[in-house]
Amino acid sequence: MRKINPKDFKLATRGTSRGINKQIALTLIRTHQPVSRAELARLMETNRANITFLVNELLEEKLVREGAQGNQKIRGRKPTFLYLNSQKSIAVAVDVRASRTFIMITDSIGKQIGEIVNFPTALEPDKFVQSLGHEVRKALSEVAPGAIVDGMGFVIPGMVDHNSGVVLHAPALKWKNVNLLEPLQQEFGAIDIHLENSGKACALSQIWTTHSDGSALNDIVFVSVSDGVGVGVVINGEIMRGKHNTAGEFGHVPLSIDGPPCSCGANGCWEAYISNPATLSRYFGRSMTNRQPQSVDIADFTIEDLIIRARSNDSKALTALHSTARYLGLGLASIINAVDPSRIYIGGELTEAWDIIEPHVRDAIKERALTGDLGRISIGIVPAGEYPRLRGAAALVTAPAFAAPKVA
Amino acid sequence: MRKINPKDFKLATRGTSRGINKQIALTLIRTHQPVSRAELARLMETNRANITFLVNELLEEKLVREGAQGNQKIRGRKPTFLYLNSQKSIAVAVDVRASRTFIMITDSIGKQIGEIVNFPTALEPDKFVQSLGHEVRKALSEVAPGAIVDGMGFVIPGMVDHNSGVVLHAPALKWKNVNLLEPLQQEFGAIDIHLENSGKACALSQIWTTHSDGSALNDIVFVSVSDGVGVGVVINGEIMRGKHNTAGEFGHVPLSIDGPPCSCGANGCWEAYISNPATLSRYFGRSMTNRQPQSVDIADFTIEDLIIRARSNDSKALTALHSTARYLGLGLASIINAVDPSRIYIGGELTEAWDIIEPHVRDAIKERALTGDLGRISIGIVPAGEYPRLRGAAALVTAPAFAAPKVA
DNA sequence: CGCATTTGTTAAAACATCTAACAAATTAGG
DNA sequence: CCTAATTTGTTAGATGTTTTAACAAATGCG
């Protein structure tokens, strides 16, 4: 039951019904391809005539293409299969991180083309845009020379005003109220440019991925644990944006208001317990109180190193991971109680130790989840190798073509 | 950008466009009444011809009625005003609370008819339904004899499965997995019966209230502070339900995981800091350590009594309220960071002391809100005299007629 | 080969929005 | 009082949908 907003509604016009049905057909072609017109008619519970019209239009718009004829072992005319048409144009996905920036080129349906490239992130916005322009053009000329770029998606580790293209606050990059959209438009000309917070983009990447098991969840949360904690919430197939596009900041919901100081200025945020720096400082803090000699430079010691040590039976490393696991679970319980999603995805370097930490995470969730059902929530692990941020950035460009039209 | 769910979509049929536009027209009549067809056409940015057809259909369905002719001081034919037709049928709103149950009768657009009645709540479900049947029939015969009852809305202080009508867990009533829908249907026959959690219902009541200032917010949170803490979240005009209809339980998000024990079994939940019992025990705890004689029976001492004492310069009462105010604000900051709503509504007995506690609440919010904008959030106080729970219960019955049709 | 069966298209019916014209009702102003 | 101007609300027809029904095309089976 959704209330119509009397100050922002959208009237149905002659073309609205067709628009809706075309998007449904496109969605089903995307999730069921290869698929024939007749099969589509059965899936949509409508007549084949209607499908003919809809598909003809999708063919004209080059969103869909006809492929080989199917070969079913029954009588009757063979079906002509329909596929998404990926050759139309190209999307550029950019993942801006504190140390390096990553670029991925995809086709118009988000499939990776060529290799992912990366280069050092210049922290001055102007320099960053300049070097980015160089790298993007180089990548495009190597991977897809002469292709039409449909749009670019940027993922930023911080708060972003999705509409104005202003980076409100990205502590890792030391950017505050930086208008990135303007210099980017100057550099790349008149192509669509989308900016989004990394947690939200990761959530998008999961929603728009067609899973092999055909699962299609429209209520999920993505938690990305890294230098900070990014969270993206999807409700009813739509990213939860909030009034200022800052919704989803569960990383700064406290575990204990008197806990350790957080980068945001407050105390005891979830992030201050489970971010990679927090886990590392827990490890070294304890080590140092034990006055053990440090064999490596602390500054270069990463969470991956800690996980390796934990696997080789460094009990202190294991303890540090277990603590993080427990705090991770306690915070997840807050999200579960607050949002009650169908599934939670977890990304970040920590996932490489999932086999070690899962039992502790599960125990902590059960400790605070309000009901047994909530405690048994499905958790999906997204390894770094799946590049959720880059795929989310690509989805910013490629997904709108498949989205439901705004109506009522 | 909303993703279409490939396993639960709704095709547009011939009637879909009309259905959408009819609901938009109905919504605008509701928010702008009295309003003429011509004015409606301007509001909807469509032609008058279309409006004629839509309104004729609404008139036939008796959702709308024509009223007196308008009197504008300009040339031209006088407009015939349109109004919502409230005489169609009747809704029964029921607010089930630990000690007493309240009944309100409303017309089909949620306006109160007659007086609100109440009776002691029997904690055995069968006895409860029996006495409820008696009281409802009595109220109906007094207030609206012979009227057709369109439906009944029940508000329960606990978790409810909105679809099956099962009360999953209502600690205050000591109900666990109680199927209320079945005995209610036996008692009242074949009328629509809706059950909902009190926090969600209160949020609904705010969404569907037409405010005098014309404000129409579709992203709000309602926080109800009473024996427990109930929270309802509305995003994009729709209640956030979650997979198990338990979303919104911010009352059990912790302020400190090692804090005071909560009725849910965990420690340090927000509820354990700000519920009325928590505030009272803070007051008496401190009083008792000071070994002051107690002039009243603690068991009968309510939060209202405490507020009266605070107003008469009982410094300990004031301190207890200020502590609660601070914790209230800290928890609100979590909601603000997580949801970023346009407005937060606060209900419950505590609101009677809002002038005392507001500055402390505001300070605490600013302490943990991630941005300045978030710290300046609009807060609305809903006094008990507005009966948000009963109005929410009524909305469960009356609102669906105005909701957007499900599409795509 | 003829028949059954499936796929995909086409023609026409039914039903929307939308444009344009028109009737009805009222005021302004000589 | 009368006419022109103006606004409201309806109607007729144009256009663009979905939907039904019929049909052509393609294929396997006996």
Q: Shape of chain A from CA axes?
A: globular
Give the chain pair forming the largest contact, with residue counts: A-B, 84 and 84 residues
What's the CATH class label of the largest domain in chain A? Alpha Beta
Q: What integer value in Å does the Rg of chain A equal?
A: 23 Å
Whole-Å distance between the termini of chain A? 13 Å
Helices and strands of chain A, in order, run as: HEHHEEEEEHEEEEHEHEEEHHHHEHHEH
pLDDT < 50 runs, ≥5 residues of chain A: 286-295
- Count of distinct structural domains of chain A: 3
Strand share of the residues of chain A? 15-25%
Number of helical elements of chain A:
13
Give the CATH H-level superfamily of the largest domain in chain A.
ATPase, nucleotide binding domain
